[in-house]
Amino acid sequence: YRLDGDRSFRDRAVKELRAAAYFPDWNPSHFLDTAEMTHAFAIGYDWLYHSLTPEERAWIRRAIIDKGLDPAIAVYEKQRGWPASRFNWNQVCNGGIGIGALAVGGDEPQRANKVLRYALRSLPLAMASYAPDGGWAEGPGYWHYATRYTVYFLAALRSALGTDFGFSTAQGFNLAGHFRIYSSGPFGKSFNYADAGDRVEPASEMFWLSRRFAQPEYAWQQRQLMGQRGRGDALDLVWYRDGAQGPGEAGWPLNAIFQGVQVAFLRSSWDNPNAIFVGVKGGDNKANHGHLDLGTFVMDAGRVRWALDLGPDNYNLPGYFGKQRWTYYRLRTESHNVVLIDDQNQDPEASAAIVAQHAQPGLSWVRIDLSRAYPGKVKRMERTVALVQRRHVVVRDVVQAAEPVEALWGMITDADVTTRGATAELRKSGWILSARIRSPRDAEFAVVPTTPPQPQAQNEGTKKLVVRLPEKVSSSVIEVWLTPYSASRSKPPLPARPRI
After folding, report:
1. Could you tell me the pTM of the whole model?
2. Cα(first)–Cα(last) distance of the chain, in Å?
3. β-strands 444-448, 392-405: how paired?
4. Most buried one in 158, 228, 395, 458, CB count within 10 A?
5. Consecutive sets of 10 residues in the chain, 500 residues long: mean pLDDT of each?
């Protein structure tokens, strides 16, 4: 309607608003629903305002107040739950409710001012989570949800009040788009840790971030994704930016570490869709939406995801966010691309830091200290992930324990796998991944299933490539080389082992 003035669109929008206005409530027991509905009504009220009758304005405004703002004030006054959160619930709830307050502020100034004062006090808790370098502990999926509502709210504040009260200058927020781009692989999959799907979807907030922080690379990614997915949304029109350039053209480094969340990315090229891409993480098992996955990695090459993260399971499984969380396969350590010690989960309270790095054209690597992941089991545990000559990925694990432990290296894949002792071959989509164990000498590859008990997701088409050691160890170095190449070409030879 705003584009062409066709009143049939206005009438349909009002019909939808009227239907939702007569809901008994907007599900305040799950307040994300309440906030999103308040946001939707605020946009409908504001964007259609001059075409609405006084009667229509009145019932839309009343729905925003009765079903959105007043339930929010009740939560704000308790100062528990989402107003005290550091992650996506904070931004979505403050953003949706705050936009609702801005929409009706002219008619309900006291109530709107009360809501906005609460929201402006609460939002800094979540904005601090972008520090120092734009990373997001909840993973790329919740980066999108949280950042989208942050931008909605800041853009509404700036358009309605002429200021975002300095929130956009929060440390690291100007680099949030860097995290989004670095976490996206060369053919549209992300490093999907922490309850995230692996598909990179368009995110209109990247246009706003591009304008706000003079980052044409952010607009470049959004334009690329809109072209690939064949769609955009209304805010792509509002915030669209021309003059975009890719990170390769802009000279961005191929590798990046986001220290705030202890996640690193290595790649062989910005511009080749067949490029090698590796994401690897330390981080904190206590992070919101986190899995027990310290040290896990994903790997792309040849437009194939060879090492994958299965992502989340059904949120409605009993105790998914409670006491049963660590019983579910997709959240447990065994389903991630790590070294499993004595078939046990990592410590849910553990964290892991990236302790060393190296970046040169022919050799780049990061090292993660995983010693806290298995307290009482290991004295020292380190994982180094390297990209050698931009064609080989090396995963090197050092394990030292007070008593002998079973150490099982693992990698989830949906490729076809054949194993032969210390070598394995993975095939998919006309490409081959050659896997070779270079340490220890007596280790062998095997394949194990990834099927948990129902009603959990059954992970059809996947399996786990593992490295089995002949016996328990108190000290071992497990070093696996992964070399991708086109099936139409010969297998690249292994180079001399670099010092990593």
Report:
1. 0.97
2. 60
3. unpaired
4. 395
5. 96 98 98 98 98 98 98 96 97 98 97 98 98 98 98 98 98 98 97 97 97 97 93 94 92 98 98 97 98 98 98 98 98 98 98 97 97 97 98 98 97 98 98 98 97 98 98 98 97 92
